[in-house]
Amino acid sequence: MSDDFDAAAIVAIPLVERAEVHAELGSTNDRAKELARDPAVAAERLPRLIVADRQTAGRGRGGKQWHASDGALTFSLLIDPAAHGLSLDRQGLLAIATAVAVIEAIRTTTGLSAGLKWPNDVLLGGPDGVAKKVAGILIEAPRSDRWVVGVGINVNNSFEEATAEVAARATSLRQATGNKTVRQAVLEAFLGDFTTRLANPSAVIEAARKACVLTGHRVTLADGDRTTIGTCRGIADDGALLIRTREEVLECRAGTVTLQPRTT
Ligand code: BTN
């Protein structure tokens, strides 16, 4: 089956008002941000979906590069947060909702059970038990009334040309299943599930708790120059990560988590 994208089928999904499919783009998030600044687009109905068959300058969280060789699924949704009842204090929930929709899309298209590494990394366990990243999410707010939800899913790509560091930490659906998965199917499954999540992001917490790979583990959370070490106690109702330190249970709303290796 072809692995080309079908723009007509994408626009038929009720959530998507407009769609652009590019053979190649630097970054779908950058394209979405460019559209957010365009007065002609300001009058249009959103969300607009931007898909790139190939992305050459993908960006990740914390200013990092997002490695995506041919076969990855890379897209961004330009949304009007108010149209979905979203305010800045719910951006964390949106990130979690997006990750849960990615996990669900992976389950329906491949049968694989992916895990959530708070707030929005999606991991797959390898045969050696080491979980590797299969998808990442970058949410940006170029304007208070225009947000960009960027998603990168390693579908059919390999990491032969990636740095050793990326290759050691990343996997793809193809690596995990041994088969090709049609990217359009993953995209459609994501958009279908995301429509429901967007309608009620608070309801995503139960699914996020089930998928959370950190619960019960020793973790380190780095947020700027602040480091918190403790045991993850799960996810709070508003999407915060709960970390029990020696003194208290902290509700953490930002930062990057690292799993501590087991000492026994
Ligand atoms: C991360 O894991 O740090 C986030 C990765 C987000 C990558 C996606 S790919 C589509 C969209 N365009 C980008 O430049 N980044 C996001």
Topology:
Blueprint: H1 7-11, E1 18-22, H2 28-36, H3 39-42, E2 48-52, E3 73-79, H4 91-110, E4 115-117, E5 121-125, E6 131-143, E7 146-153, H5 164-169, H6 173-177, H7 183-199, H8 205-211, E8 218-223, E9 226-235, E10 241-244, E11 249-252, E12 256-259
Parallel strand pairs: 1-2
Antiparallel strand pairs: 2-3, 3-7, 4-5, 5-6, 6-7, 8-9, 8-12, 9-10, 10-11
Helix pairs in contact: 4-7, 4-8
Bound molecules: biotin (BTN).
Residues 27-29, 55, 58-61, 64, 66, 74-76, 121, 136-138, 150-152 line the site of biotin.
Question: What would your notes on this structure say?
Answer:
The chain is an alpha+beta fold and 264 residues long. The protein has helices spanning 7-11, 28-36, 39-42, 91-110, 164-169, 173-177, 183-199, 205-211, and strands at residues 18-22, 48-52, 73-79, 115-117, 121-125, 131-143, 146-153, 218-223, 226-235, 241-244, 249-252, 256-259. The strands form two sheets. Strands 1-2-3-7-6-5-4 form a seven-stranded mixed β-sheet, with helices on both faces. Strands 11-10-9-8-12 form a five-stranded antiparallel β-sheet. A hairpin with a 5-residue loop joins strand 5 and strand 6. The longest helix is centred in the middle third of the chain and has 20 residues, at 91-110. It is globular, with a radius of gyration of 18 Å. The model has no long low-confidence stretch (mean pLDDT 92). The site of biotin has 20 residues, from helix 2, strand 3, strand 6 and strand 7.
